[in-house]
Design a protein that fits this description.
- Helix content is 34%, strand content 14%.
- By secondary structure, it is α/β, with parallel strands linked by helices.
- Helix 1 packs across helix 15.
- The protein is globular and about 70 Å long.
Length: 395
């Protein structure tokens, strides 16, 4: 891989600064791979560290990428020493973006999966068009008790998964209709390309498997209150298998000893506790589950590409009224508010699934669009069309 963009004036470089962590890679690298196979295009992927460099190369190779460079966003030793924060949990994202901004902004266009990178628009000097592909569904438009993320408005174009995201983004005034397009769910398209979207079993028994997927959200995330009691309740019941696979960020800053202690809770015949491996993000667990138990995560939509029973935890008991997505998300299964309500809800989830099945289908259709199209290719088409239109106006 790799092509010297200076060798031909016709080559357009598209930069992907991926500063949100490797759990976001599947939301963007399928697009990078698609672009890299187009004539006259070179892709530069910027990552935070050597481990992410290896992970990005592996995924790009698996996706059949062609002309790509993966660049580790190293900082001078004095910069890292001055900040005093050289840890995986504080990866100096802002500092790395500023330090590498000249290289990144040389590109014809910048594609990001998070909003931190929007600071590239605010730095002095020229900035090329910035295109945003949100990781997950609805995040940039959600309130979650903290207000809308106005950084979303800085992007020249947003490539969204489905109609519900497009409607909410426009209605809330974050972007006008001409700066929003629907492409489908990039992550799902990438996993389909990798042959990952197949149901499978992770336990050697016929018990239904529950996936507990707590979020890291400080108010809505349920691990602190529900996690250990839930494990003990299912241990005593023995009617279910359990996968505990939280959002990758929930335990990322915890000491290694705590992480290992959590993994050690696993029991092969019925319990997997995964504090944050790649299997938490590549849909290994969502495809293996028979019942989803969660609170705030858009992984619910990934799970529901095949409608199945859900139990949703509203620990604040307010129906998600401060959020643009939760009321509808929590209508897709039985909603519980207390620990003691979980086991009865799990026992009746399969029998009650028919009450929610059609709503699940409609919600997923609106949230992530058509599953029979390759969202990575659709996104690549739109990015290049936008660049062609811009070149025509300037020419």
């Amino acid at each position: 891989m790799g092509l010297d963009s200076a060798a031909s004036p016709k080559v357009r470089t598209i930069a992907f600064p991926l500063v949100g962590g490797r759990h976001q890679f599947l939301h963007g690298l399928p697009v990078a791979a698609s672009l890299s196979r187009r004539p006259g295009v070179e892709v530069e992927v910027f990552v935070l560290n050597m481990a992410e460099t290896r992970a990005a190369w592996a995924l790009l190779d698996a996706l059949g990428a062609d002309r790509v460079d993966v660049i580790e966003m190293r900082l001078p030793r004095m910069v890292e020493k001055f900040t005093g924060r050289r840890t995986p949990e504080t990866p100096l994202k802002t500092e790395r973006l500023v330090w590498w901004s000249r290289r990144i902004r040389r590109a014809a266009c910048i594609v990001t999966l998070e909003r931190t990178s929007s600071l590239l628009k605010r730095l002095p000097g020229r900035c090329p068009p910035m295109i945003h592909i949100p990781h997950g569904v609805g995040g940039a438009r959600r309130a979650g008790g903290g207000g809308l993320d106005q950084r979303f408005s800085r992007f020249d174009l947003a490539l969204l998964a489905g109609e519900s995201d497009r409607e909410t983004t426009v209605r809330l005034g974050l972007l006008p209709p001409e700066r929003v397009a629907i492409v489908g769910q990039v992550k799902l398209a990438g996993l389909r390309r990798l042959g990952k979207l197949r149901r499978h079993r992770l336990f050697d028994n016929d018990r239904p498997t529950v996936l507990y997927n707590p979020h890291f959200h400080p108010r809505r995330g349920t691990w602190a209150r529900f996690g250990r009691p839930l494990i003990e309740a299912l241990r005593e019941d023995r009617g279910f298998n359990l996968i505990v696979a939280p959002h990758m960020r929930l335990f990322q800053s915890r000491p290694d000893e705590e992480i290992e202690a959590l993994r050690a809770l696993s029991e092969p015949d019925w319990l997997i506790v995964d504090p944050g491996s790649d299997r938490s993000t590549d849909m290994t667990y969502t495809m293996a589950a028979d019942i989803y138990l969660g609170d705030f995560s858009s992984q619910l939509y990934e799970y529901l590409i095949e409608p199945r029973p859900c139990v949703l935890i509203d620990q604040l008991g307010d129906g998600g009224r401060d959020d643009t997505m939760l009321p509808r998300m929590w209508s897709l299964g039985e909603r519980v508010t207390e620990v003691e309500q979980i086991m009865p809800a799990l026992r009746r989830a399969t029998a009650r699934h028919a009450e929610h099945c059609e709503a699940q289908r409609a919600t997923v259709r609106e949230a992530i669009g058509r599953l029979d199209e390759d969202a990575g290719e659709v996104a690549a088409d739109l990015i290049l069309a936008r660049l062609d239109a811009r070149a025509s106006r300037r020419g």
